Amino acid sequence: MNFEDLNLHPTLLKAIREQNYTVPTPIQEKAIPLVLDGGDVLGCAQTGTGKTAAFALPILQNLSTNRLPLSVRQNGRRPIRTLVLAPTRELALQIHESFVAYGRYTGLRTTYIFGGVSQNPQVKALEQGVDILVATPGRLLDLMSQNFVDLRTIEVFVLDEADRMLDMGFIHDIRKVVAALPRKRQTLLFSATLLPEIRELASGMLNNPRLVSVAPPASTVDMIDQSVHFVERTDKIGRLIQLLENPDVDRALVFTRTKYGADKVVRKLTQVDIKAAAIHGNKSQNNRQAALEGFKTGRMRVLVATDIAARGLDIDDVSHVFNLDLPFEPECYVHRIGRTARAGRDGVAVSFCSSEERSLLTAIERMIHKQIAVVGPVPGAARPTDINAIRRNDRAERRADDASGESGKTENPRPRSTLRPGTYEVTRRQPSTTDRVPGSSGRDPRGPGRSKASPDSSSPASSTRRCHPRRSGR
User: Fold this and answer.
1) What is d(CA 133, CA 341) in angstroms, rounded to the nearest whole number?
2) How many CA atoms lie less than 13 Å away from 17 in the CB half-sphere?
3) CATH class of the domain defined by 224-404
4) C-alpha torsion 41→47→48→53, nearest 10
5) What is the enclosing helix (H) or strand (E) of 277?
6) Into which CATH architecture does domain 3-213 fall?
7) What pTM, to 2 d.p., does this model score?
8) 278, 329, 279: which is closest to 308 by C-alpha?
9) Each residue of 79-110: pLDDT tens digit?
């Protein structure tokens, strides 16, 4: 089947050809006709199989075919007709870019809103009028509370990566958004997995949805060569450096469990002249975009990320994915390795497993119904996995690095306060001669006997006293 067989408009077909798309993926082949018909859809597909185009193309066609008359516009501007909700900033931006690429000949306007950056440019874009809005939950609710976003005109609502939304605790935000939508609408819910929680969420949002599933839930991409190395946590980065010396590793994604761990890996790789950058929640949006751009253009050979980047990264030609730390949730393993072998290409996924993570590896293999090939010697009996113990070890490792100066912190950190609990410092600045009003005397306006300090005075520039806060009830 070709895209021409899906009854898409010639303007969309032209844009698709410019993106070098020729044959629709299974999820696109099944979902596009259903979305064009206007019904609700519950879609499940492996990550990296083209879910975005599966809903973006039919939405663009329906909106361009059924244009609103000028009389319906709000204050002379276009009302928001489609809302796409995504869990991360990176995914929201990439969905927006896909809508722009596919709809370049439709005349429809698309914009995005997400946190981590100033809201002013986003508000300005909304005030100019948009047809399609791509958003993350937090910034959307923030702008709704400021009356910059009105969802009463929404015709199509898309919830993308719904399972990740639940993992990140967005369920209450999702319900607030849904409550602001009109009851008469088309709802599309897409997810990489169809866990019971997803079906429960769908039952309250969708009306007689059509189920589209092109692969068993949480199945791994067959073209990914998966392997595992048994190595303890202190030796993982050294083993990673050894593997990165292989020239076949052209562009690699490295996943860590913690933000601090991601920064530590970048420092270690930089020390051996391997260009790398980190992306995680503590990075500003500008830094995250700069790291992604450097990785996409090839300036950075390695991108180190936490699971915030396991979804939504649409980067071509990622040759290898390295799991420096195994994830606590087996489903995250699928999303991580799905960053390689995209669009029918081959890929390699390498995982490092310490003795304390052996049970995590077993859970992954049980979920994917496949035993991952072992590289190197197999250790003896493993210790029972205690997730809380692993987290304690992560924190202990960071404290040890801080003590040894390996954490990358400044050499002269701000000293700890010596105040007793319940006290605070009040600093009073003593005025100097430079504070005098021209033509005034040297007397202090606060009263007699308070002469201002001269520049060569030995008295301190400020005085500090310690106070106890006023206690209520006394």
Assistant:
1) 30
2) 10
3) alpha beta
4) 10
5) strand 276-279
6) 3-Layer(aba) Sandwich (3.40)
7) 0.66
8) 279
9) 999 999 999 888 899 999 999 999 999 999 99
